[in-house]
């Protein structure tokens, strides 16, 4: 068989085309995702400063983490607290906003735009302006609270209020979830709502008995995506609190960044990264399990 | 009429959603020292641009603007190329490996960046890529971090009638021609959505530039603002000027192309 014939056959073969089209992604996946993942799994069992040779130390990183590291458990606990509050409140707010802008209210396009915008326009500039707004003495939030006769808290400077402050800020970035809810709401058959109306159900009953059950797959989706995102939070505490006060906002992401890039405990940081990953996976599975009894699927 | 009570919560929420942006804008134009006034003035008494000159002095925010723009444009081009090629393979080319590989692709959606980051950092170090823009742009040409985009484009490609490709094949068009002259033009809305998301993601990215760049003249805007924070401490006027410059292009993109952002987000929400 000569070369041209071979080439012609290869060209006609669909499987060959598949692999050619996939080649860039496959190279990236093997070289920059799977490869590094396996290497960091290996590094989790070593002592390594990132440049020299890693020293195999077995389970010692994990033993230290779970028993003698004074930062690990508080960091994990505070990460859970932040993620839990952010996802719970954010989901409720997103659903409420979606339900309100799904009505025939005048100006709903304006409200949708306003609620969605901060989900896209986000990042460091917003974290900086929020730090300033949350300033205990010169900030606009405490000024407004003072206007209505409330002595505002110390926000980011207080170990009690730092996490609530970060959660409060995150609520304004909930527009993505609102859009997902909105498209879910628009899929609910109008006949169901009309039938309930005929039966004399009030708005709360319709919301509780029809909307929420029919929306439950979308709620589940938003909760899982929210958890995955907020368990990995990094830039907010890095820019706004540096992990303080008193390590209250020293979340897992910040902790392992410091271990890797500040203290050069790269082996230990790899172990932390795997623990973070497993926490995300386990929580997702738990939520999926729990939801199996509570999520309704319309039709199939 | 029954809807009028809704305006109370809607307006309160809208106020808090918009407040940071108004505060940023008014802080930027209050001039030096204007931001420390207490009680705070909601609107500057006159427009003062001196905060912008401060932020443009030294290693200027305009330089950061250029750096950010360069990285965002290059990584968007890379993302569009790699994601559309990959999505086309997953949508229209048959192979026994297709199903399992697609499952692998979806699994990477859940992967925290930290888990691959440390070894990737070591790889870039070996390649001599640290403190260059290569780690921030090259991976996008290889579809790294593009799982969501690939998924979105694949859904779109699946919606293109098979007959169109059949007809092209009868006319002698190869796979590459079918991809370039049928799939890509028809998928323009989805490609715009992907391009916008990647541009904004790259523009807003803090973590990547923070880790890979050390020379302060190479910083992007988000890392630059952080750098300004260390230079100007609590001189919020200067910080707000740089912040305004950072968010302005994204706000503009959002207002012009809101439809595409909404479609992109809504597609993820389990319309499967």
UniProtKB/TrEMBL annotation, chain B:
Keywords of the record: Cell membrane, Membrane, Transmembrane, Transmembrane helix, Transport
Q: Where in the cell is it found?
A: Cell membrane
Its predominant location is membrane
Write down the Pfam families for this protein, in alphabetical order. BPD_transp_1
Q: Where are the transmembrane segments?
A: 7-25, 69-90, 102-124, 136-158, 179-200, 236-257
Its GO CC terms are: plasma membrane
Q: Which InterPro entries match?
A: MetI-like, MetI-like_sf
> What is one Gene Ontology biological process annotated in the Swiss-Prot or TrEMBL record?
transmembrane transport
**Where does the signal peptide begin and end?**
none
Q: How does it sit in the membrane?
A: Multi-pass membrane protein
Every ABC transmembrane type-1 domain range? 65-257
What's this protein's family per the entry? Belongs to the binding-protein-dependent transport system permease family.
Official protein name in the record: ABC transmembrane type-1 domain-containing protein
Q: Which organism is it from?
A: Streptomyces regalis
């Amino acid at each position: 068989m000569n070369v041209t014939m071979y080439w012609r056959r290869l060209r006609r073969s669909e499987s060959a085309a598949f692999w050619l089209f996939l080649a860039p992604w496959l190279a990236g996946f093997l070289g920059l995702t799977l490869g590094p993942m396996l290497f960091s799994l290996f590094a989790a069992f070593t002592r390594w400063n990132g440049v020299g040779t890693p020293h195999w130390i077995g389970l010692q990183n994990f033993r230290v983490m779970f028993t003698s590291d004074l930062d690990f458990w508080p960091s994990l606990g505070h990460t859970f607290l932040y993620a839990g509050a952010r996802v719970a409140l954010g989901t409720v707010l997103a659903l409420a906003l979606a339900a309100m802008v799904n009505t025939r209210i005048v100006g709903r396009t304006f409200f949708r735009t306003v609620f969605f915008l901060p989900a896209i326009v986000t990042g460091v500039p917003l974290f900086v302006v929020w730090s300033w707004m949350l300033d205990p003495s010169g900030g606009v939030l405490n000024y407004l609270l003072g206007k209505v006769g409330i002595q505002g808290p110390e926000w980011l400077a207080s170990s009690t209020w730092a996490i609530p402050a970060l959660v409060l800020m995150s609520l304004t970035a909930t527009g993505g979830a609102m859009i997902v809810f909105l498209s879910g709401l628009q899929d609910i058959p109008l006949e169901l709502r009309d039938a309930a109306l005929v039966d004399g159900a009030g708005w709360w009953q319709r919301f509780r008995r029809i909307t929420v059950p029919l929306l439950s797959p979308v709620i589940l989706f938003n909760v899982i995506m929210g958890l995955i995102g907020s368990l990995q939070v990094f830039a907010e505490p890095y820019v706004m609190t540096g992990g303080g006060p008193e390590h209250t906002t020293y979340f897992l992401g910040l902790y392992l960044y410091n271990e890797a890039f500040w203290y050069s405990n790269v082996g230990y940081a790899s172990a932390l990264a795997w623990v973070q990953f497993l926490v995300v996976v386990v929580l997702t599975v738990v939520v999926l399990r729990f939801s199996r009894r509570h999520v309704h699927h319309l039709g199939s | 009429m029954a809807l009028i009570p809704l305006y109370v919560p809607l307006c309160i929420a809208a106020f808090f959603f918009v407040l940071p942006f108004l505060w940023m804008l008014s802080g930027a134009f209050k001039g030096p020292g204007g931001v420390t006034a207490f009680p705070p003035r909601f609107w500057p008494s006159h427009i003062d641009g001196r905060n912008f000159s401060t932020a443009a002095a030294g290693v200027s925010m305009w330089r950061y603007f250029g750096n950010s723009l360069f990285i965002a444009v290059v990584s968007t081009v890379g993302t569009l190329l790699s994601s559309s090629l990959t999505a086309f393979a997953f949508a229209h080319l048959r192979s026994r490996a297709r199903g399992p590989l697609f499952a692998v692709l979806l699994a990477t959606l859940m992967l925290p960046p930290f888990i691959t980051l440390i070894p990737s950092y070591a790889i870039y170090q070996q390649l001599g890529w640290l403190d260059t823009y290569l780690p921030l742009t090259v991976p996008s040409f290889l579809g790294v971090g593009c799982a969501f985009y690939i998924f979105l484009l694949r859904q779109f490609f699946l919606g293109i009638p098979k007959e169109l490709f059949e007809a092209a094949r009868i006319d002698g068009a190869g796979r590459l021609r079918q991809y370039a002259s049928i799939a890509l033009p028809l998928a323009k809305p989805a490609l715009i959505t992907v391009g916008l998301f990647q541009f904004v993601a790259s523009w807003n990215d803090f973590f990547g530039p923070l880790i890979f760049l050390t020379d302060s003249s190479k910083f992007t805007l988000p890392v630059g603002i952080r750098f300004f924070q260390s230079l100007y401490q609590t001189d919020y006027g200067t910080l707000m000027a740089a912040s305004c410059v950072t968010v302005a292009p994204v706000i503009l993109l959002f207002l012009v192309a809101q439809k595409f952002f909404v479609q992109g987000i809504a597609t993820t929400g389990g319309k499967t």
